[in-house]
Amino acid sequence: MNTVTLLGIDIGKNTFHLHGQDARGHQVLRKKLNRNQLLPYLAQLSTCKIAMESCGGSQWLARKIRSKAIKCS
């Protein structure tokens, strides 16, 4: 399987849509997760750039993702 180098997250109230691309820009991941599944799933991914929309929840989510990345490495 190709490695995800760029992960896009569409933030919703209860569900999150993920779209992952490899270094060549090809889609290698497409997933829909609920709030409880998101952080454990992201902790299992290898290090990559994450892009998400700017909203109030994105700041909180970015801090959670960053703290998970530090604990995993």
Strand order of the largest sheet: 3-2-1-4
Task: Write down the CATH class.
Answer: Alpha Beta
DSSP E strands, number: 4
Strand content: 25-35%
Identify low-pLDDT runs.
none
- Structural class assignment: alpha+beta
Order of helices and strands: EEEHEH
Mean pLDDT: 89
Our count of helices gives 2
Looking at CATH, the homologous superfamily is ATPase, nucleotide binding domain
Helix content: 25-40%
Q: Would you identify the CATH architecture?
A: 2-Layer Sandwich
Structural commentary:
It is a single chain. The chain has about 70 residues and is an alpha+beta fold. The protein has one domain (about 5-70): ATPase, nucleotide binding domain (Nucleotidyltransferase, domain 5). Helices cover about 35% and strands about 35% of the residues. It has a four-stranded mixed sheet with strand order 3-2-1-4. Strand 2 (about 15-20) and strand 3 (about 25-35) form a beta hairpin. The protein is globular and about 30 Å long. It starts with 5 loop residues before the first strand and ends with a helix. The mean pLDDT is about 90.
